[in-house]
Amino acid sequence: MQLSMDSFVSEPGPASSETLSNNALKRERRARERQVREEEKKKVTTNKTPENQRQQVANNDTMDPSQFLSNRIKSLALLKESGVNPYPHKFDISMSITEFIDKYSSLHVGEHVENTEISLAGRILNKRSSSSKLYFYDLHGNGAKIQVMADARHSNMDENEFCKYHSGVKRGDIVGICGFPGKSQRGELSIFPRSLVVLTPCLHMLPRHTVTSNSDEAQSKKTRNHSWTPGITRNPETNILRDQETRYRQRYLDLMLNSEVQKIFRTRAKIISYSRDFLDNLGFIEVETPAMTMTAGGAAARPFITHHNELNMKLYMRISPELYLKKLVVGGLDRVYEIGKVFRKEGMDLTHLPEFTMFEFYMAYADYNDLMGIIEKLLSGMVKEMTGSHKIKYHGNGFDSEPVEIDFTPPFRRIDLIEEIESRANLSIPKDLSSETANKFLLEACEKFDVKCLAPHTTTRLLDKLVGHFLEETCINPTFIINHPEIMSPLAKWHRSKPGLTERFELFVNKKELCNAYTELNDPQVQRQRFAEQLKDRQLGDDEAMVLDESFCSCLEYGLPPTAGLGMGIDRLAMLLTDSPNVKLSFFQQ
After folding, report:
1. Using the 8-state DSSP alphabet, how is residue 448 labeled?
2. Which CATH architecture group holds 77-200?
3. What superfamily would CATH give domain 266-412+477-586?
4. What is the pTM for the complete model shown?
């Protein structure tokens, strides 16, 4: 909470003769400040408000950053020379800031609990002062904030020590405080320190809101009071640190200064926890599979390659845990899941990164129809629990555009891939998609509708581009695109009633793929044939086509029960629930 200078001098202490004389001094000070403000209005040499200028002087914000760093290093050196350790090993806290707020927020305005001793710790992100005897700090920790009212009258130090010590406390310093709880006369919950010690000094000058006019000051106060929760739109104007390059390169600063970013990280953690608890309650067990493999399989993607020095052999960073998880099902673990990183050598954009978190599970004696029901229940329940509604707002086209509403109310819409393309494009796609005739037909269709597809023009790639053009653009609310052709789905089982198709679905939300799932192919002979067909695409230049994994085929020969499996990108889901237009913002990616 940003307080004006008048606010600083309006906090009365106990009624006493000292207070009465102080009141006279305060009235005189106010008169001087009004005179200063009138003079400032006449000046044209600066566009800063008097309040903002005073705060900058108090916090050394007008100093050159390199000079600030040099001064702090020198002051630490002096402390060390005098035998003082500026980096204490430990500080005992009696409660967190969140617990402090929960316990004492019910205090009345002006009430103090001086017989209670509380110790808190956190980082100072704002410092204000009305005199050398009264300092106000904003103490932040674990996503919460309280005010610190450091009054010389309550301190264990004498006035000279108090003034000297607090003048050396800077924004960004991590401090430990021992004091009592209370509320100011303005009703703000605060801790009143008996002692305050710097536990870790911040050597660099922190960025802060730049206020250039009275209207900007009003907007600054408005944005500081903005509180974001999952499912609603975010306001980037609330950010103190706005430079994108700095935010990505120094994510610790982004977390430290922009309160919404911590909430994004916590929301992502809740997504993972909810998903884990959901499957645990269905009898699944969590497992870990190798991140380095001898064969890159389980998805259509290019792998990263590394080298094992001891074994003198090439290894691949996994692009999917799928094949290992299905081997576990063969081994008798009927319900398994894994949450972990996968690595794919593909393009980078707002929704793609070379490393991301995959949530993948496999369920014996189930099919893709079962999984559609399970994922509907998981996602709709998650959104409802985290936002209080099945509907969320998302800036799908950037913060400069109006947000879209996405409705996770089940059941989700379902559209048949081939049938819907034929209907929307008025096409009659050849049934034998492995033929040259079908490939030529799809290439001509792409040219007709100006759908760009880079070489090689395999049937799989052409179909995928047509799906993106005609179907994905219609999928704002969660939508299942179902029954993919066999040629597009080498690991999926053939459709039991539609020749040439598979029992597969992809779940799209806001035009982007969120989940991929299918009834698993468990016939080893057919699986080898599908891998052979993928080899033809690789020979045509498609380096994302799957390669033969003989160890997996051999495993299938021991018998994989009827099984269904699903993979979901955690980071894209976090983007939706945190209104993040860039996947980088949802986890610690630099």
Report:
1. H
2. Beta Barrel (2.40)
3. Bira Bifunctional Protein; Domain 2 (3.30.930.10)
4. 0.84
